[in-house]
Amino acid sequence: MPKMKSKSGAAKRFKARAGGNFKRAKANLRHLLTHKSTKRKRGLRGTTDVHHADSKSVRAMLPYA
Questions:
Q1: Structural domains of the chain, count
Q2: What is the pLDDT along the chain (65 residues), one digit of tens a residue?
Q3: CATH code (residue 44)
């Protein structure tokens, strides 16, 4: 069998964690930042886990993660 390919867009967006979960960046911190409060922008920094309802589809897109 040939190797399976990862979805390249998903490979750029998600990273596997040791516990089998996936981490992702938070949305809404790319543009239109002037009207967003500093507190809101600070909360959007860093990473968070992919929701458990979506992790099955992320796993299918990243077969070797």
A1: 1
A2: 999 999 999 999 999 999 999 999 999 999 999 999 999 999 999 999 999 999 999 999 999 99
A3: 4.10.410.60
